[in-house]
Amino acid sequence: MSSPFDLGGRIALVTGANTGIGQAIAVGLARAGADIVAVGRSAPSATAAAVQAAGRRFHSVSADLGRPSEAQAVIPQALQLAGRVDILVNNAGMIRRAEALEFTEQDWDDVLNVNLKVPFFLAQAAARAMVAGGRGGKIINIASMLSFQGGIRVASYTASKSGVAGVTRLLANEWAGKGINVNAIAPGYVATNNTAALQADETRNRDILARIPAGRWAKPEDIAGAAVFLASAAADYVHGAVIPVDGGWLAR
After folding, report:
1. Which letter, b or e, does each residue of 197-218 get, where b requires 16 or more Cβ atoms within 10 Å of its Cβ?
2. What pLDDT does 91 receive?
3. How far apart are CA 203 and CA 247, in angstroms?
4. For residues 1 and 7, is the Cβ–Cβ distance under 8 A?
5. Which of 35, 128, 152, 209 is within CB 3.0–4.6 Å of 57 for a Cys-Cys bond?
6. What gap in Å lies between CA 198 and CA 74, rounded to an integer?
7. Sheet of strand 242-245: strand arrangement
8. Residues 200 and 157: beta-carbon distance below 8 Å
9. How far is it, in rounded angstroms, from Cα 138 to Cα 14?
C-alpha cells in the first residue's frame, strides 16, 4: 500500500521557485515524488539541481509575473512542457513598505497585481485544464500571518494576503465538486529576502522573536511539509483551509 503522501506521477507548478519558500516547496514536492515546473524571473539553477538530485524531472518557465502578458502565458507554457498540471502552488509575491499616510498608488497596484490578481488567474487557468483533463487537482495559495492580522507599514501586502485567504475559500466552494482542492498555507515569519529588513531591524526582530513560542524564525524548509500534505491524497477532504505554519505565533 502506497503512502497517502506519495506524489509519484504528479506534476507540480510552483511560482517563485528560484529561492526561499518557493524553492523549498518545489524541492519538498519533488522529494515526495512530483515532477516540477518552476516559474520565476531568474534561472532556478539551484532548484533544478535539487529537484534532479531527488530523481524528478524539472522544467522551467521564465516569467515576470508583474507583467500581465507573461503571467497569462505561464499555464499554456507549463502544459506544453509537462503535458498537464496536477498541483499549482501560487507562491510568488512581493512587498512594499511605507507608512499608510505616505503609501503610493503604484505600490498598492504593484503588490495587489502580483500577490492577488495573478494567483487568481493562474488558478483559473490551471483549474480549466484540470477540469478538461478530468483528473481534478490541488491548488495551494501562499497566504500570510497578515491574512489574519493587520500588520504595520505594509498596506497593500496586508490587503493582498487577506484577499488570498478569501479567494481561497471562494474557489474551494466553487471547485470542490469538480475534484479540485483549493487551500492555503499561512507562513509565519520566515527568514527570506522578503523579510531581510525586519531581520535587520534590531527592535522589530527582538519583538517578533519574543512572540514566537518556537523561539526562532522559520526556515523556508519548514513550510514544505504543509505543501506536501495539501498536495497529496492525505488532504483529499481538505477544502478552503488556511493552515498557519508559524511556530505558534497565532496561538500566543
Report:
1. eeeeeeeeeeebeeebeeeebb
2. 98
3. 20
4. no
5. 35
6. 32
7. 58-62, 35-40, 11-15, 87-90, 137-142, 180-187, 242-245
8. no
9. 12
pLDDT in tens, 41-73: 998 999 999 999 999 999 999 999 999 889 999
The string over 96-128, giving b where at least 16 C-beta atoms fall within 10 Å of a residue's C-beta and e elsewhere, is beeeeeebeeebbeebbbbbbbbbbebbebbbe
Residue 190 carries which DSSP code? B
187-224 residue pLDDT tens: 999 998 878 888 999 998 999 999 999 999 999 999 99
Label residue 1 by pLDDT band (50, 70, 90): low
- DSSP assignment string, 115-183: IIIHHHHHHHHHHHHHHHHT--EEEEEE--GGGTS--SS-HHHHHHHHHHHHHHHHHHHHHGGGTEEEE
Question: How much is the CA Rg of the chain, to the nearest whole Å?
Answer: 17
CB 110 within 8 A of CB 66: yes
Task: Say which amino acid occupies 193.
Answer: N
| Residues involved in catalysis | 157
Distance CA 38, CA 83 (A): 14
Could you identify the residue written with the cell 519538498? Answer: 28
Cell matching residue 97: 513598505
